[in-house]
Amino acid sequence: MSELAEDNARIEGAFRALFWRAEYAQRADSVDVVCCHANVIRYFVMRALQLPPEAWLRVSLTHASITLLQVRSSGP
């Protein structure tokens, strides 16, 4: 397996481990804090918004920025 393929599998695995739709019966919010490089955050945002990976080039993140993603049990 090439290094690029390994990296792709690793970042996709991280996305799937961190982002999922809560069970509909869940009433309390759950919060995860993820600290990582901006490129990883941009990848996560593109995947969460179901945008093509190329769209990440239009997203700019500054040092120590905060990105908030909410995943609701109803889907949005």
In short:
The protein is an all-alpha fold and 76 residues long. 36% of the residues lie in helices and 0% in strands.
Write the layout of secondary structure elements.
Layout (H helix, E strand, L loop, with lengths): L2 H16 L19 H11 L28
What does this protein look like?
The chain is mainly α and 76 residues long. It is built from 2 helices and no strands. It is globular, with a radius of gyration of 14 Å.
| Uncertain stretches | none
**What structural class do helix, strand and pairing data support?**
mainly alpha
Q: Could you estimate the helical fraction of the residues in percent?
A: 25-40%
Give the assembly state of these chains. single chain
Overall pLDDT: 87
Beta-strand share of residues: under 5%
Principal-axis shape: globular
Radius of gyration of CA atoms, rounded to a whole number:
14 Å
Main sheet makeup:
none
Distance between the termini: 35 Å
Relevant terms:
single chain, 0% strand, 2 helices, mainly alpha, 76 residues
